[in-house]
What does this fold into?
Amino acid sequence: MKNRRISLVALALAGAFVVGCGDDDAPIDMGGTDSGPPVPVCPTTAPLPDNQMGACCARKSNADRLDAPEMRLAGLRLTAPSGTLTGSIIRGILSKAFDNETFNWLLQASGAPTSGDGPVMIRTGYGVRNTDGTYAFAIGTAPTAGGDPARWDPISVAGAMSGETLTTTPYEGAGPLTVPVFDEDDPTLVVVELPLFSLALTEATLTEGRTCLGTRGTSSYDTRSGGRLRAFFRVEDARARMVTVGTAVNAPLCAIIAGSLTDAAYCDQPQSMWTAKPNSLCNATGCDSNAAGMTDVCDPNGGMNGCNAWEVLGEFAAQGVEVTN
It folds into this structure.
């Protein structure tokens, strides 16, 4: 077990270097100026069946179901809060989990206009991967040792289509959408649970017959041409979720966001000492964030009007899949 864990970390760090180089200032894997767009090289570590196709390595086209496209997130680059969470180590771990399909987050639309503008409903959440390469939303399958067995269940949010661009309102349910990431070799072992509160898709432009968000290059996904999301990690939720990957990452999610990959007690010190301080204030149904460099909503250092959440921003790529429920 120890050797496998070390291997996981080594590969994650290697992946972090690749993704870190590819996702920064220039489009990834573009090659020389005369070579044209990158040729997608689909993840070789993805499980069978090997039916990946198109610009985003989709497993199924949505061209014949434009009113109800189904997708799986294939890449995610967190851009805020800045610090340990958005650094190369966590980025590499997430990238590898997406490629191995041990991080399965689904998007399922219904009632979308096939052209023009109109409303749409989006169902999203953790998906169980079937052996035939299809997916199913999890219902009541989260381990009770970690809390509510329904915490992995999907949520539904109202959205709108404008041409091929999708947006949603923030989710206003009582709790967060929680998406698990599993160990590559042990599908029963959770590496981390991401508790996303007040999730919203702020912009997502679909291509390839509504089959792709973003594109795959020769080694990783280019998320900048994909979708944008906004959510919040509440401090109380982040304190309750451990992140464990070998010896490189072993701390509560709160510590990883605030400033340490290995110090389990990092968030026990005063909030004023955290490297990445919370910048938002959440109540039961929503959140507000401080303007950049301001304390107009809440005090990042705590106190009577202390911030109790971090605003989370990210870019994502997604691929067409078949969802069976």
